[in-house]
TrEMBL record:
Recorded superkingdom: Eukaryota
Location(s), subcellular: Cytoplasm, Cytoskeleton, Microtubule organizing center; Nucleus; Chromosome, Centromere, Kinetochore
UniProt GO MF annotations: microtubule binding
Protein family: Belongs to the SPC24 family.
SUPFAM superfamilies per record: Kinetochore globular domain (SSF143026)
Subunit structure: Component of the NDC80 complex.
GO biological process: cell division; chromosome segregation
Pfam families: Spc24 (PF08286)
Function according to Swiss-Prot or TrEMBL: Acts as a component of the essential kinetochore-associated NDC80 complex, which is required for chromosome segregation and spindle checkpoint activity.
Name assigned to this protein: Kinetochore protein Spc24
Gene3D superfamilies per record: 3.30.160.430
Length: 198
């Protein structure tokens, strides 16, 4: 009878009749594919988590920076600062305009004084000898010294009787210039230098 045979033999014949080798191989391949897929998923998940952590840190840094910027920037302070700068700009512009007008006025005054000085120098010494000539020479010298002093220039004479030093005062700038006059330079040179200094 069939049941009198060895059960192991029966099972072996039954298993061989089913031919499950192909199915086992297929299941093995499926398991390998699932394992590979799981590893790939784990790797991608780790990469995504790493990128997410990096982006989270960047976001936290940017949020902190944004919060600091907002806390340090006050719109009221900004508006008041702009207003103060505008006021200062207009004040500087007005001062510059006033200084330009004053500069033009002083240039005209200098030109007028130059012409007067030139006229006085062109007149020269009338007379020449005797008491009258000496008096006119002294009057001319005194007049020149008076004009120079009115312009803020003091002349100092040396032992020879000629002028060797000039002290130029500029009251508007608060400057004082001392000029040692050398005979090798012309009077025209010193006149121009004096005007530029004033």
């Amino acid at each position: 009878m069939l049941l009198d045979e060895d059960p192991a033999t029966l099972i072996q014949h039954t298993v061989s009749n089913f031919n499950i080798h192909g199915d086992k191989n297929a299941l093995g391949r499926i398991n390998d594919s699932l394992s590979t897929l799981q590893q790939a998923r784990d790797l991608r998940l780790r990469d995504a988590e790493h990128a997410l952590k990096k982006l989270s840190r960047q976001l936290a840094t940017l949020e902190n920076h944004h919060a600091e910027t907002l806390s340090s920037h006050s719109s009221a302070d900004h508006a008041s600062q702009i207003l103060a700068l505008d006021t200062q700009k207009f004040r500087v512009a007005k001062t510059a305009a006033d200084l330009e007008i004053e500069g033009d006025r002083l240039e005209q005054e200098i030109e007028t004084l130059k012409m007067k000085l030139s006229e006085l120098e062109d007149q020269g010494i009338e007379g020449g000898e005797g008491e009258r000539g000496r008096r006119e020479l002294e009057d001319e010298t005194l007049l020149r010294l008076k004009i120079y002093r009115s312009l803020g220039i003091d002349l100092e004479s040396n032992n020879a009787g000629s002028y060797s030093k000039a002290v130029i005062r500029n009251n508007q700038k608060g400057d004082v210039h001392v000029v040692n006059m050398d005979p090798k330079f012309s009077r025209y040179f010193y006149a121009n230098y004096f005007w530029q200094t004033m």
